[in-house]
Amino acid sequence: MSSGVEVGDDVVTAFKQLVKDRKYRCAVFKISSDNMKIEMDKTYEPSASSADAKADWVKMVKTLPESDCRYIAYDFPYEHQGSMKNKVLFVTWSPETSKIRSKMLYASSKDGLLKKLEGVQRSIQCNDEDDIEYPAVAKLLASNTAGY
User: Fold this and answer.
1) C-alpha dihedral, 51 to 52 to 58 to 63, nearest 10°
2) Cβ of 18: how many Cβ atoms within 10 Å?
3) 3-state secondary structure the chain
4) Comparing C-alpha atoms, which of 133, 102, 81 is closest to residue 124?
5) Edge-to-edge order in the sheet of strand 37-44
6) Which pLDDT score is estimated for 104?
7) I want to staple 44 with a disulfide (CB 3.0 to 4.6 A). Which of 7, 26, 67, 95 is the partner?
8) How far apart are CA 58 and CA 64, in angstroms?
9) Roughly what angle, to the nearest 10 degrees, separates helices 134-143 and 53-62?
10) Where are the domains of the chain?
């Protein structure tokens, strides 16, 4: 990685469990306090009902720090042309209120992390509450989905 931050094995394992096993709906990663490693922050299991998809997203967003960055891998369900779709979404949460050093470290470590996470279908960056609201993300994904 260009930043020198190593990706922890637990991060790769959790991502594989999200993509292949569908064990998790979401996995949140953070850079360790010594800035040497990307590590697990938390995971979320999927709700019993797909109708709870929006509630799952809202619940996860509420746990994000207001002034620190995070990476999020999410099995994101959304509606497109009347049918439900899913994309494995990678989000870089970089709020405007976070420290510049943190923003720079997360930005420079992102590509190295993405190389380890096979199966990401879309990557976005969110900087404030408007960017990370469920309708905004769903609209962004739907606008980039083939209509056939």
Assistant:
1) -160
2) 23
3) CCCCCEECHHHHHHHHHHHCCCCCCEEEEEECCCCCEEEEEEEECCCCCHHHHHHHHHHHHHCCCCCCCEEEEEEEEEEECCEEEEEEEEEEECCCCCCHHHHHHHHHHHHHHHHHCCCCCEEEEECCHHHHCHHHHHHHHHHCCCCC
4) 133
5) 6-7, 37-44, 26-31, 70-80, 83-93, 122-126
6) 96
7) 26
8) 10
9) 120
10) 6-128
Query: Could you count the other beta carbons within 10 Å of the beta carbon of residue 74?
Result: 23
Residue-wise pLDDT for 40-56, tens only, equals 999 999 887 666 778 89
Phi and psi torsions of 49, nearest 5°: -115, 140
What is the end-to-end Cα distance of the chain in Å, rounded?
38
d(CA 9, CA 15): 10
What's the pLDDT band for 148 if we cut at 50, 70, 90?
Answer: very low
Quick check: pTM over 0.85? yes
Q: Which CATH number fits domain 6-128: 3.40.50.880, 3.90.550.10, 3.30.420.40, 3.40.20.10?
A: 3.40.20.10
